[in-house]
# Entry
Amino acid sequence: MHNKKIALITGGSRGLGKEMALELAKAGNDIVITYNSSPDLAQDVVEQIHAIGGRAAAIQINLELPQSIAAFIEELLATLQERFGNNRIDFLVNNAGMGATIPFEKATEADFDRFMNVHLKSVFFLTQQLLPHIHDGGSIIQISSSTTSFCVYGYSIYASMKGAVEVFTRYLAKDLGPRGIRVNVVAPGPVETDFNNAAIRNNPDRKQLMANMAAFGRVGQADDIAGVITFLCSPNSKWITGQRIAVSGGINL
# Structure
C-alpha cells in the first residue's frame, strides 16, 4: 500500500517544472505533470522519475483554453485512481506559462487574452476546480516572477498577470486557512531555461547584464528554484502561508 503524497505540477515537461518534478520525486512524492505540446518530453520526465524508483504520470492540457479544465480534471481523477490508487492530490504547483517580449505600444488584445488565460484565468479556475480533490493540510504554490517587483522591457502583460496571481495567492491563503492548506507564491529571478525562446541562454550580453544585477553574480539555474518548491511541499514549511518568496540570488539589492 502506497501512502506517498502526490504532487501535480503544471508545465512539467521542461525547464523549471521538470526540475521541480524530479526534485519532488527524489523527496519521495508521486508526481503528475501536465504538458501542452511536448508529449515526448513529458514522457521522458516520467521515465526519469521511474528510473529513480518513483511513480509518475503525464496529462495533456492547453491552459490557453480555460474551458478545457473540466475535462482535464476528469482525466486527472481517472489517472490518480489507476496509477496511484488515490483520488486526491496533496500539492499543486501552478508553474505552466510562456513568455514573450512584447513592447507595450505593440501589444494586441489577442496577446493580452493569451497571457491572461495561461497565467491568470487558468490558474484561478484550475485551482478552484481542484479544491475538492486536494487533501486538507496540503500546499499550493504559484510561480510568479521577479518582474512583478522591477520592470523588464516588453513584459507589461506578463508581469501584470503575475502581479494579479500574487494578490490572488494571499486571498486563497486566507480562504484555505481553515483547511490547513498553505498557499504561497515563488518569484524566481532570471533563470537560464528555454523560457521566452531561451532569452537569457541565447543572449550572452543579456545574461551578463542579469548576472551583474544579482548579489551572487550569476543568473539562476532550474535547480536553484526546485529545492524551494520541495521545501514548500514539506512539513518544514508548515507555518508559512500567503507569502511571496523571491528566489533570485539577491537581484537588485
Notes: The chain is about 45% helix and 15% strand. Residues 189 and 248 are 4 Å apart (CA to CA).
